Structures
1.
Amino acid sequence: MSDAPIIFSGIQPTGRKHLGNYIGAIRQYVEGQDRGDPAIFCIVDLHAISVAYDPEELRERVYDTTAILLAAGLDPERCVLFRQSDVREHTELTWLLSAVTAHGDLNRMHQFKDKSAKQQELVSAALFFYPVLMASDVLAYRATEVPVGDDQRQHVELMREIARRFNERFGETLVVPDHRIPEVGARIMDLQEPERKMSTTGGTEAGTVYVLEEEKAIRKKFGSAVTDSGREIVRSPDKPGITNLIDIFAAARGVDHGVVEGEFEGAGYGDFKKAVAEGVVELLAPVRERYAELRPDQAALDETLAAGAAKARAIAAPVVADVRDRMGF
Ligand code: ATP
Ligand code: MG
């Protein structure tokens, strides 16, 4: 057996993917595909139905998200890239693992509390069960490493607990995975409400920078980003707006935040915001260009996803068979 990690991560095809997803997750995927053996990336359309959605739009967004991931640098030859709903093992394992998931643990999940408060019509049981499906996504591959943004820390803790409880109850079967949260950019905040994370479904339009956004719009959004009183460009708990801009710039440039603080000592907020905007424009431009080439060829995207699903199924099926066997089926 090789020492290489088995990497798994999922991304929702809801809405348009944003800078937080890019910096917190997608960039790590690209880095992970050469370290992981295998590195598995899943477009989690089954997760997307946990809040209000439109079926036709969901289908389209899966292609959008696939094209974004390819444009960002995922190479289907070097990783496993697939659509969650193509691999039935995820849903079957969700039910099986619900037997070793504590209801009280699900009740404590921040994401459920935050998202359920925002639902207009229905708080679905799917929203409550989301972390069990997420645990199944990862545990079905005996993944050792889960690259995610900081907001998913609690869900990864829970899947570790589920794996441990399963192994205790039914014998050593599942692997307890570790999370991998980036040091810079694990929590990109909304530019208008820097106390809240930038989010696909919950943020402000003006405060969310999309991966595919036009350069003019990116500049405008950074230009109107909320800053703080005072004039210093330093990270600090009472300066959430500036702190976020420093983190974004540091992540875009691939440097530590101290370097950014040093570079802009004495500069004004206006100039700093312009510099951050340019950094992000440069970061995203190549992705947007590649996307425009890839997205129109839906047949090719379908082929990529189908090939990925076949590879994924080959890994997950024997694991779920083991779980069934241990559980008495
Ligand atoms: P939603 O708000 O509807 O849950 P999302 O924006 O969180 O959507 P997801 O597809 O759920 O998007 O998340 C994909 C990945 O992006 C996850 O690993 C998540 O941790 C990461 N991520 C999401 N938002 C941020 C953010 N603001 N900063 C850094 N990483 C993020
Ligand atoms: Mg999310």
2.
Amino acid sequence: MKLLITKGHIVDPSQGIDGIGNILIEDGKIKEVRIEPGEQRAKSKERKSEVRKSGSEIIDASGLAVFPGLVDMHVHLREPGFEYKETISTGTRAAIKGGFTTVCCMPNTNPVNDHASVTEFIIRKAKQEGHCTVYPIGAITKGQKGEELAEIGTMKNEGCIAFSDDGQPVMNSMIMRRALEYSKAFNVPVISHCEDLTLSEGGVINEGLISVTRGLRGIPAEAEMIMVFRDILLAELTGGKIHIAHVSAEGSVDLIRYAKKKGMQVTAETCPHYFSITEESVETYDANAKVNPPLRTKRDVDAIRRGLQDDTIDVIATDHAPHHMDEKLREFDQAPSGISGLETALGLSLRLVDEGVLTLKQLVEKMALNPSRILGIQKGTLTAGSDADIVIVDMKKRYKVSAEKFASKGKNTPFEGWELRGLPIFTFSKGKMYEW
Ligand code: DOR
């Protein structure tokens, strides 16, 4: 099977490509990427944004952007155990619709992915029913209880590509130290959910004026910062690989920037909601904006944008956390935290390009190349021989976010009705074409 994508504006930072060209796909792999000399991006902008297909072999991508399939290193697929919220099938369909061809799923399922048998189940299910590549992330501790290390080695052998207790922090510093020692021995990153539970306990939104006026228990930014710095120090002590999940606070960005300047080994991610909206979104007790860590202040949002701009923050991940509508309709205190993020991430991130915060190259780095490098997977690139994971985006297409139309079962979004720009119209997962 051969397929040719022609005249698209290809952006592939892994090969320093940013120009108009063609991509040849053969048997699910990228065979060749050829950039037309002299064809510059400015020229392509003038072209009409439309797709003409001739037969099934040629896709005319004139006027469209072509990126490596996006890689989301932080999603909750909810299977096994919470299939009423999401399944591997619906979650990966949402991924494809959002332009992602690889997702890494967090272990807070039921049972928790703290054992090779659960890892094996997820991999098998993903092969049978998934629409894109799925890599499981194993739990650091048994049952994510923070007490006893899980069998990291056997889970890695089964296919886990990173370890995290996401949803929960590892409060015990000695256990985190040991986890990082294992991570070094097995050359896998530990992804840290940074939250000092003794400070955040009972909190449901950011601690500040709004938590006071709305009578809700607050979570101070320090609950995150303390753990960010602890984990950077432990990574330094052990030589392990630490990746800080869902950075929400200015102070955390400062600490990560400081550590990187000092040459410490740390990588970090943030999510679209932390650079797009503030705690004001929960003023009306809208549980769709309840997330952990909580949405914070304009000052934090600005700091996160600066952190993305100067590459202190390496990755944009979604923390796709689908929940059932009935759960989100509970009173604010009782509603679960999380945002269904796979189908709005690209549009929200492209706003950063529009606003001059990121270049398109940086966006592709943070949404495809960097997560792949951190995880040591052969994804996020269009190099010949790689899986044909590609997204073709109509950058001019404006659309309104409508949760009802999400492929995800999770309709919990605070971005309902937002007008965004940049819609994936073709996604190729290992050469298999999905068209929207
Ligand atoms: O808001 C969140 N939801 N934060 C987490 O860390 C976990 C996630 C979930 O699993 O729902």
